[in-house]
Amino acid sequence: MRVLIVNTSSDTGGAAIAASRLTAALNRYGVEAQMVVRRSKWAFLWERFCIWLANGFRRKRLWDVDIANAGTDITHLPAFREADIVHLHWVNQGFLSMRQIRKIMESGKPVVWTLHDMWPITAICHHTDECERYKTHCLSCPLLQRPYPRDLSWHVFNNKERAYARGNITFIGVSQWMTHRAQQSALTEGHSVVTIPNVLPLDQFQRGDRQQARQALQLPADTIIIAFGAARIDQPLKGFDRLLEALTLITTPVHLVLFGNVKDSTCLQHIPCPYTHVGTLTTPEALSRLYTAADIVVNASDYESFGLTLAEALACGCMAVSFDRGGQSDIIEHRKNGYLARYPDVADLAAGIEWAIHYPVAPEQLRLSVTSRFSPEVVARQHIQLYEGLCAARG
């Protein structure tokens, strides 16, 4: 079986990491998987220009939406022609346009689309927050400067409806939360939606010696260490402000270690405890060292499609605390391998941190809680079963 994995990048962003890990896992377990990545600079710039123009020449929200009005045709590639399954992942910012997605559908090949965010099941946004227009038909988009009934979101939603109608798509939610969202979208009507998590490469995320890890990172040896990280720590949806408020409510002395980029460093001035910012960590080895050094990893996001940081931390024997919303709820088993706080209750988040401090779980048990669900073999087998069913149905 030949599977073509399609993603804008091979190494930039969570979707790229997930798609690359899946490609490796499939090849390990008998599938001939190949990944195609491509982005046209001119398609990317043209899309941004059209959004800027439609938004009244304002840059606000310029990066919050994608309209897929330009891109690259992959249907002429030998890898596409030879593929039995076309598996789309994150294809925005100048990779695939709606015209090219329609051509993929018209090829007659089984199409699978993993939802790393909500863009495939909405008009132009990647996360809907509290907006529910995607359940019927997107229009009057609150992300646009001047929303109106037949605005940009209305037109893109129509384009998606026409493209998706050219064939059948199996949408994959990487968490139960994402699957539920997808099932509610008008764009998935007539298509299948299933849940399969992301791959966690367990050989790359393993627990080392805690004291050695702390010494390497120049962290205190005898203090409770809490880890918090994101591609951009101060991005509002990541909930850094909520974490800082929760830290003011706990009574146990802690040291905070941050990993990831910070756009506005003034946010660091409000941290109510000693902290270390280690910057952006790009390798599994560096991340494993940090998770090994920490006692607890906290995720205070509004939601996560999956919650990869939590799964990686648990694999390294680090307790996990987050809100009971989004993909986090699939990873954390409440009061077993971590704590799920009521969203957006900061006091309960603080209570979760205190619980993790006073009731630690053995690192071996924490690792076992994710190996049985997210290992490369488990996740690859679920994909292979899906692919085989689609190929059999095609005849």
Architecture overview:
The protein has 395 residues and is of the alpha/beta class. It has 2 domains: 2-199 and 375-394, Rossmann fold, CATH 3.40.50; 210-373, Glycogen Phosphorylase B (Rossmann fold, 3-Layer(aba) Sandwich), CATH 3.40.50.2000. It contains 14 helices and 12 strands. The chain has a 6-stranded parallel beta sheet with strand order 2-1-3-4-5-6. Strand 3 (85-88), helix 4 and strand 4 (111-115) form a beta-alpha-beta unit. Helix 4 packs parallel to helix 5 (152-164) and helix 8 packs across helix 12 (346-358). The two termini are 14 Å apart. The model has no long low-confidence stretch (mean pLDDT 95).
Give the number of helices.
14
Question: How helix-rich are the residues, as a percent range?
Answer: 25-40%
CATH structural architecture of the largest domain = 3-Layer(aba) Sandwich
Total number of distinct structural domains = 2
Question: Remind me, CATH topology of the largest domain?
Answer: Rossmann fold
CATH class of the largest domain: Alpha Beta
SSE topology string: EHEHHEHEHEHEHEHEEHEHEHEHHH
Rg for CA atoms: 21 Å
N-to-C CA distance: 14 Å
The structure class reads alpha/beta
Strand content: 15-25%
**Spans where pLDDT lies below 50 across 5 or more residues:** none
Q: Biggest sheet, strands in spatial order?
A: 2-1-3-4-5-6
Average residue-wise pLDDT: 95
Largest sheet: 6 strands, parallel
- The outline comes out as globular
Total number of beta strands: 12
